[in-house]
Amino acid sequence: MNSRIIRETVLSLHGLKIKLQFKLVKNITLRIKENGDIFLTAPVGMSVSEVQRFLESREQWLRQKLQLVLQAQQKQDKKYSMGELPFDGQHVWLWGRRLPAHFLLSSKKHGTYEVQADAVCFYYRSELSEKARCAFVEYFYKQELAGRGEQLLQAWEKKMGVRHTGLKVHRMKTRWGSCNVRTGSINLNTLLACWPQECLEYIVVHELAHLHEANHSPRFHAIVERYLPEWRERKKLLAAFKPL
């Protein structure tokens, strides 16, 4: 069948723009591309007014379909940038799980939180601005990471025969952790609290290994391999996981 375009124009349907193409076809066809562009192919013999009436009869379906297409596109385009606080106003991430975040007026001490089986409750005594809520969530991530990070550091330093002198937790844009080999101090990225715990454990072993070997030499990787043989899988998970 000849699908050559005979003529084309653009129609408007209550704010929607539809590209109309007349071709040597028998049936009228309406389609929406992934970017949201709307195309309609009609037989050469149909008039523009007939096509317009067809569009009006399909408007509800067209708008529903368009919404689904645009939602799918938005989800596909969404990306996570390292250092970005994983908080959409309604959910937080904890150890690889996306949990509802409930902000509750309460008589409890202002700025406390409670991790439940299926949600995290944040308690406050006066209304919080959006900025204050983000700060509250970041505090939550920092506290959770500091607690679990210290536990893992103490457990692994016994296995590896080293000793760290202190843990600092703060948000980083380019690193998951660092080790000051001169002082023995360890730094961990606050946002590791959002990733699966296996990722945190890998970073802990990685940084403690620097107390044996300062650089990333073959000897360093051999040390990591000795204590955590699955470190490559952990590293891949760290890179692949996205708290969206």
UniProtKB/TrEMBL annotation:
InterPro entries per record: UTP_pyrophosphatase-like, YgjP-like_metallopeptidase
Q: Boundaries of each YgjP-like metallopeptidase domain copy?
A: 26-239
Name-wise, this protein is: YgjP-like metallopeptidase domain-containing protein
Its lineage reads: Bacteria, Bacillati, Bacillota, Negativicutes, Acidaminococcales
